[in-house]
Structures are given as structure tokens and as C-alpha cells.
Amino acid sequence: MAKYFDVHPENPQRRTISSVADSIRSGALVAYPTDSCYALGCQLGSRDGISRIRTIRNLDDRHHFTLVCQNFAQLGQFVHIDNDVFRAIKAATPGSYTFILPATKEVPRQLLHPKKKTVGVRIPDHAVAQALLAELGEPLLSSTLLLPDEDEPMTQGWEIKERLDHVVDAVIDSGDCGTEPTTVIDFSGGGIEIVRRGAGDPERFE
Questions:
Q1: Strand runs (DSSP E) across the chain, as ranges?
Q2: What is the sign, positive or negative, of the torsion defined by CA atoms of 14, 15, 19, 20?
Q3: I need a labelling partner for 173 at 20 to 30 A (CA). Which of 16, 83, 87, 107 fits?
């Protein structure tokens, strides 16, 4: 049965966030809010967490997992960024964007796209997600909480608790955070490809 945490959306309770972070370090899979939908998250190197996310979402091995980072310095540890890409991403973060980039050796192999050796990264503009990332001190391995055969993600923490009670370990509820996923920008091919248009304004990359 999943633990349920009711967290203030702008001033998250430190003790609660610390408790969730401890659970993640112990191998927990959590549902948490971001600036674009709820997400499933686990510790970076958790094979069990990755497997559970794949099962819940019915994902194949070509799915790009996302490393949700606290800030740009942290993001830079896990992906290769040239100067032009650096400036473009810096100007758009924090925000509702996911960037696909070549991964560094810091990224566990099971997270990489099998052919491209790339990974998704993002910096959310959401107080609860930022507080959790600050407490963890490392990125959260994440994927949008969109269930198979459903068109939109769930938006209510209590609903997530009811439906995923036996497949996740914790749910952080800080209110509705929308149904529109991130805009996905792929920089890995040498140019700029808009893979998905979502909550982040894609015009800046056109």
C-alpha cells in the first residue's frame, strides 16, 4: 500500500520531503508532481525502479527515460553539451522541456536509448519537485505518469493513490499540476528536432 503525502504546492514541508527522499534512497518508486503532469520517479541506479516503471507504463527498451535535475550544473554531469546547445537550454530552464542529448558515462547503461546512447534531461519549475531534488542531492530517474491506453495523465494525487496503490510506494499530492507533458527537444543529431509539442513553448527552438 502506497504512503500518501499531502504537500503544500509552494512551501513544501521540509520534514515530509525529507521522509520521501529517504524512501527513494531505500528503493521506493514514487508518484510526484512537476510543472507538467505527475511523474513516476526512483533513484538513478535502481534496476527495480526502472523495471517497475516499464511495467506500469508498458514501455519498450526504446523509451527515453528522463533524468530530472535540480539545476544546470547537475544536468551537465550527465549529458554532453556544446556551447550553442548550452545557451539554448540555459535560456529555457527551469521549465516544461525535456532535452535529449548524448549521455556521459555517469548515466547507467539501462537508461540509455539502445542505439543512440542518449538520455532525456530536464529541470522542472515546480517548488515540490525542486525541494525533493534538493533533498536527494541527485537527479530523479523519471517518466511521465501516463498509463497504457490512456490519452491523458492523471492529475489528482488521491486518484493516483487509488489506482496505483499496490504498484508504487508513495504518492506526493500537491494539487493539480496539469495534463500536458513536456515539450521534447532532441539535440542529439547535430541539429534541433522538436519531438513532441507540449507545455513548454516550442517556438524558441524553431
A1: 3-6, 30-33, 38-43, 66-68, 97-102, 118-122, 140-144, 170-173, 183-186, 193-196
A2: negative
A3: 107
The span from the CA of 32 to the CA of 139, in Å, is: 14
Closest CA to 39 of 143, 161, 177, 152: 143
- Specify which of 7-21, 62-76, 146-160 reaches the highest per-range mean pLDDT: 7-21
Which positions ≥6 away from 155 have C-beta within 8 Å? 37, 38, 176, 177, 178, 179
Gyration radius of the chain's alpha carbons: 16
Q: How far is CA 113 from CA 19, 55, 62, 86, in A?
A: 32, 17, 6, 21
Those residues whose C-beta lies under 8 Å from the C-beta of residue 74, and which sit 6 or more positions away, are 138, 139
Which triple of cell numbers denotes residue 4? Answer: 500518501
- φ/ψ of 56, rounded to 5, equals -60, -40
Convert the pLDDT of each residue in 99-120 to its tens digit.
Answer: 999 999 999 888 887 788 999 9
Q: Tally helices (H) and strands (E) across the chain.
A: 6, 10
